[in-house]
Amino acid sequence: MTRVGIIDYGAGNLFSLKTSLERRGVVVEITDQFSKQMNFDGVILPGVGNFGAATKTLEPSKEELVSAVKSGLPFLGICLGAQLIFKRSEEDEGEGLAFLDGEVVRLPKSVKVPHMGWNNLEIAKRGELLKDVEDNSWVYFVHSYYPKTTDNAAVAAISDYGVKFPAVIAKKNIFGTQFHPEKSGPVGAVILNNFIEICRS
Amino acid sequence: MPLAKRIIPCLDVNHGKVVKGIHFQNLRDAGDPAPLAKRYCDEGADELVFLDITASPEKRKILEKMVKKVAMVLDIPFTVGGGISSLEDARLVLQNGADKVSVNTAAVKDPELVTRLSDKFGGQCVVVAVDAKRRFDSLQDRITTEEDGSSFWFEVHTYGGSRPTGLDAVAWAKQAEKMGAGEILLTSIDKDGTESGYDLPLTRLVSEKVSIPVIASGGCGTAEHILDVFQKGGADAALAASIFHYETYSVTDVKKYLRSRAVTVRL
Question: Which domain, by its residues, includes A126?
């Protein structure tokens, strides 16, 4: 049985993500305090909400989580969870997990913010997470900020909304999607399945 | 690429059962919202809207159960509306898997509710539903438009379209945006149920005056109507009920047609 932990840091709706993993035969545990002893095969940091508030509620899990991920535990950050892969955000104070170099910045003034709706993925580097995902696939976004990384090799796909921004981050066992795979129809399903496969292997 | 224009089937539910759209042949329990929702989702619907018209002391329990069942099978966003009047109502719906709530009468009565919802759950969760009807009398400070030589404004109605409020619908939509609404679900009472096309002047007027997405509703009878409301009405999304329920078109048919007319859709 593959066991995936979802870290609950008060960001709201975990039901959709949980059921969409359970539909795929995964045992899901929701925790507000991650520890390595939980022996998960993978961990997901979901999220809608504010960067600063999230860093505070993540604090009790942070040390163990950083250590587990650095020693290879598959990690998927979704939306705000993908932004928390980085250290700082323009949105608020607080320190993220700092797995990758870069910072989280606001979408440009030239477009309606939040970026809400279906947009395309331009795949830069397919890798394991985007296996069988076609170029220009549609995925569902809801966000006002995006991660601007200096680590170009970690950008697996980009989207274009007033600016070209990283929509999928992938570096070794660390993954992030700025969109919501659990709300992205069949494309999102493929991506979640791929993450589960990564957890299994 | 611009964002895709969204196609949103709407389901009316009463006591946990779909009350329109029970014409699908090969669904075992035709009134069960979950399989119907899944079917729309599989056909390529971009979102779904559930309008709960249950009037019962058991409303919350019934709603909670329905939202959960739907959330179990859907992997696209969905909105729940109908009698949402407090943070508690909204929390019940959102915690059980809905992505957005729509508020109507309660928001007109207490516009601060929009701000409270938006502060608590984020503006992206808050859809303000505006039911509007043409008024041909001339009153001061009303935002007017014209069609076929006559001038009119739009009055907000509450309680399922039954009660006129005197409020200007365009001004109310603008206020709702200011109070923190993430989207406007704009229904034309004149057009609703007629299948004669969306109210284009209404949709255009509101789309021009607010900078949040506008979902057009009321009057859809053909795929051409949807094309018109995007191209001439400036809508970001089109809501329709009967054309999908009665299988006049599938969502895929509509999207293929729109794409052939150079509208960006998720297909």
Answer: 3-200
Residue B237 lies in a domain: yes
Confirm whether A180 is a catalytic residue: yes
User: Is B64 contained in some domain?
Assistant: yes
What string of pLDDT tens digits covers the 267 residues of chain B?
Answer: 579 999 999 999 988 888 864 444 444 456 889 999 999 999 999 999 999 988 888 889 999 999 999 999 999 999 999 989 999 999 999 989 999 999 999 999 999 999 999 988 888 899 999 999 999 998 888 999 999 999 999 999 999 999 999 999 999 999 999 999 999 999 999 999 899 999 999 999 999 999 999 999 999 999 999 999 999 999 999 999 989 888 888 999 999 999 999 999 999
CA distance A167 to chain B (A): 14
Residue A135 three-state SS: coil
Please, what's the b/e burial string for B28-64 (b: 16 or more CB within 10 A of its CB; e: otherwise)? eeebbbbbbbbbbbebbbbbbbbbbebeeeebeebbe
Which CATH number covers residue A45? 3.40.50.880
CA B47 – CA A183 distance, rounded (Å): 9
Q: Which of A98, A75, A95, A201 lies closest to A150, judged by CA?
A: A98
| Other CB atoms within 10 Å distance of the CB of residue A66 | 15
- Residue A2 CB neighbours (<10 A): 16
- Residue B79, in any domain of the structure: yes
CA atoms of B175 and B128, how far apart (whole Å): 10
B236 touches chain A (CB under 8 A): yes
Contact B4 A119 (CB under 8 A): yes
* C-alpha to C-alpha distance for B88 and A96, rounded to whole angstroms: 31
Could you tell me which residues come within 8 angstroms of residue A66 by beta carbon, excluding any fewer than 6 positions away? Answer: A97, A99
Q: How far is Cα B3 from Cα A181, in angstroms, rounded to an integer? A: 17
Q: What CATH number does the domain containing B191 carry?
A: 3.20.20.70
Q: Do A140 and B76 touch (CB under 8 A)?
A: yes
Q: List the one residue out of A91, A70, A76 whose CA is nearest residue A146.
A: A91
Q: Which of B46, B75, B121 sits opposite A118 (nearest CB)?
A: B46
Residues B203, B186: contact at Cβ < 8 Å? yes
Contacts of A48 in chain B (CB under 8 A): 122, 124
Q: Quick one: three-class SS letters along B125-171?
A: HEEEEEEEEEECCCCCCCCCEEECCEEEEEEEEECCCCEEEEEEHHH
Chain A residues within 8 A of B6 when measuring between CB atoms? 117-118
Q: Which residue of chain B has the CA closest to A158?
A: B1
Most distant CA pair in chain A, distance: 47
